[in-house]
Task: structure prediction
Amino acid sequence: MMRLRQAPATVALFLLALTATAHADCAWVLWSEEQKSPIVSRWIVVQSHVDANDCRQAQAQKLRRMGAEDGAQIEGNIVKFKDREQRFRVLCLPDTLDAREPKGAR
Result:
């Protein structure tokens, strides 16, 4: 009787591990979005990385470099400039996702 109660939990843990492994096995892409105004933006691929940790390290470096510019302010993964409307967002995504696609497109 006890084994039957543990089965759903075991299956759930297995599926969770399988999903995490699938994302761990894919490459990661560092994206940058340049927003020139609230309605005009452009996404570009900056670099691809072997795993999420490498991508996040590159993201942090890029944010630090951009934040070093005069008048730049970093808020999370966004760099804002005091003297211009332009701002940048730097984002890491698995290579199975495209930052340019609308949310819910997949």
In short: The chain has a mean pLDDT of 79.
